């Protein structure tokens, strides 16, 4: 196992956890550069997602930035659809193309919110209307297909809809990623495509556990909302563009 890859996973986990994400997209990109087997990539990325956002969910909840009712409302239909999306067969090239496009579009939405709109305030009327449950279900399906948790898609939509405060949205995304990553992993298990190598994945899991704990604490207790938004947009854009420019043949 490369010490450099472990360090990169640690850094990704720290930065993504600080924005309420698990980092699955960048884990996949890094493993692709290292030439890791495609199925091992997906299984390892989902496991890393789960261990990162489990700590994040705890810290966001403890800090009062995880409205449980809203989290359940958004996630209740997404988990079974994440399972279905993960169960569907997909070619490697299609997978990376779909992921790169989705992340880039999400980044552009975030940039629009950051640079073209001022004075962000959550809409107090957004108490968990049915439309966000439907949106969550669609994102769950997409996240199952792409092999990540889906928070990277959910965050800009919640921001555009002024669904909650930036830190609460980060907490909601952490919860969403956790349950959808579990759903996606179960989908892979159902079609018997989970590939786990303890020698390979063990050091990476340890790296993201440490990085994720540090990042979650920074977001929940230290980082200002604007910093959380900026980290979110930059990380999404970086992951999306990198995927599109490094599509496998």
Walkthrough of the structure:
One of its GO terms (cellular component) is plasma membrane. It holds the Pfam family TauE. Belongs to the 4-toluene sulfonate uptake permease (TSUP) (TC 2.A.102) family. It is a single chain. This protein has one domain. The chain is 77% helix and 0% strand. It contains eleven helices and no strands. The chain has helices at residues 3-18, 24-33, 38-62, 68-75, 78-87, 92-116, 130-146, 151-160, 166-190, 198-221, 225-245. The longest helix has 25 residues, at 38-62.
What is the number of E strands? 0
Tally of separate helices: 11
What about the largest sheet?
none
Mean pLDDT metric: 81
Our estimate of the beta-strand percent is under 5%
Flag low-confidence runs. none
Succession of helices and strands: HHHHHHHHHHH
Number of domains: 1
The helical percent reads over 70%
- Tertiary shape: globular
Query: What distance separates the N and C termini?
Result: 26 Å
Q: Which structural class matches the secondary elements?
A: mainly alpha
**Radius of gyration from the alpha-carbon trace, in angstroms:** 16 Å
Membrane topology: Multi-pass membrane protein
Family: Belongs to the 4-toluene sulfonate uptake permease (TSUP) (TC 2.A.102) family.
Keywords: Cell membrane, Membrane, Transmembrane, Transmembrane helix
Subcellular location: Cell membrane; Membrane
């Amino acid at each position: 196992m490369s010490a450099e890859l472990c360090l990169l996973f640690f850094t990704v986990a720290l930065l993504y956890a600080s924005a309420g994400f698990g980092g699955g997209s960048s884990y996949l990109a890094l493993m692709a550069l290292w030439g890791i087997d495609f199925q091992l990539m997906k299984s390892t990325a989902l496991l890393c997602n789960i261990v990162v956002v489990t700590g994040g969910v705890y810290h966001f909840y403890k800090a009062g930035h995880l409205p449980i009712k809203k989290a359940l409302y958004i996630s209740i239909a997404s988990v079974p659809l994440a399972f279905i999306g993960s169960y569907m067969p997909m070619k490697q090239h299609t997978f990376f193309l779909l992921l790169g496009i989705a992340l880039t579009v999400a980044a552009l939405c975030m940039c629009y919110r950051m640079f073209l709109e001022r004075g962000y305030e959550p809409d107090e009327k957004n108490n968990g209307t049915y439309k966000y449950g439907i949106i969550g279900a669609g994102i769950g399906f997409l996240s199952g297909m792409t092999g990540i948790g889906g928070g990277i898609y959910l965050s800009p939509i919640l921001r555009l809809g002024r669904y909650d405060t930036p830190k609460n949205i980060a907490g909601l995304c952490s919860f969403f990623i956790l349950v959808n990553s579990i759903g996606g992993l179960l989908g892979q298990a159902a079609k018997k495509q989970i590939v786990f190598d303890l020698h390979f994945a063990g050091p990476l899991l340890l790296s993201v556990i440490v990085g994720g704990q540090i990042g979650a604490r920074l977001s929940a207790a230290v980082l200002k909302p604007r910093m959380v938004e900026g980290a979110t947009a930059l990380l999404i854009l970086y992951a999306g563009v990198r995927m599109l420019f490094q599509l496998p043949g």
